[in-house]
Amino acid sequence: MVQALTTLEAELGDRDYFGGEAFGFVDVALVPFTAWFHAYEKFGGVVAEEVCPRLVAWAHRCKERDSVAMAIADPHKLYDFVLYLKQKFGAK
């Protein structure tokens, strides 16, 4: 997971968005995965802010857009859902 996040961060570089100055298709495709950052930390100890701070900053920029803010899953609800699935299926 850390390798995937650092690879994405390297591709983002110092740009505001993956396409440069403007929010684009790659941003639309990737931003939903940022809702999982909380679960990564709770289940795997991967703290996104430490591993990929520029990617986290990008996620915050994206969430400032109304279209993204209204569509992205709540990270805590997503975490609760994963807990439910773990309990339902007996995963450890």
Describe, in plain words, how this protein is organized in 3D.
By secondary structure, this protein is mainly alpha-helical. The chain has seven helices and no strands. The protein has helices at 2-12, 25-30, 37-44, 48-51, 53-63, 66-71, 75-89. The model has no long low-confidence stretch (mean pLDDT 96).
Total helical elements = 7
* Helix content percent band: 55-70%
The assigned structural class equals: mainly alpha
Radius of gyration: 14 Å
Straight-line N-to-C gap: 18 Å
Order of helices and strands: HHHHHHH
> Strand content of the residues, in percent?
under 5%
Count of DSSP strands = 0
| Most strands sheet | none
Low-confidence stretches: none
Summarize this structure briefly.
Helix content is 66%, strand content 0%. The chain has 7 helices and no strands.
Salient structural properties:
mainly alpha; 92 residues; 7 helices
Helix-strand blueprint:
Layout: H1 2-12, H2 25-30, H3 37-44, H4 48-51, H5 53-63, H6 66-71, H7 75-89
Helix pairs in contact: 1-5, 3-7
